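The data layer described in this paper is built around a simple, fixed record for each protein. We quote a single record here, exactly as it is kept in our systems:
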Amino acid sequence: MTAIDCTDCFLAIEIGDGVKRALVRHFTGFIATQLAARSVAPESETAREKIDRDAWRLAARVLSEVEAEIDGALDETLLAPDPQKTVQDILATAVESTAAEIERHYLSDDLFGLAGLIEKVSAGDPGPAPRAR
């Protein structure tokens, strides 16, 4: 029998939906806190949807950056006494540091960050149009 070459393989971490939802909740709270600190109250459903959209966008950025960052850490993890716990620790550290970085960027980005959101929310956002009967 000819030996089967199994060198074409790699390890990957699949980030679960719980982490994704936790990031969205985190960024929704972060944005709401930043708006409240600036005396901006999103009152319409449209304004709340814009906040939710930004929270999802920021969470997606964190996940993308974290996935790229932790790919290289997997080989070393296999040598640890408890590989799963080590991966969870690596993921937690990467998520926390990346989320903090994304928050700083969001606060300083005049176009797509908090300033842009405040402008959209404060621009006389009338909310959804009334339904025609």
Residues 126-131 have pLDDT under 50 and may be disordered. The radius of gyration is 20 Å.
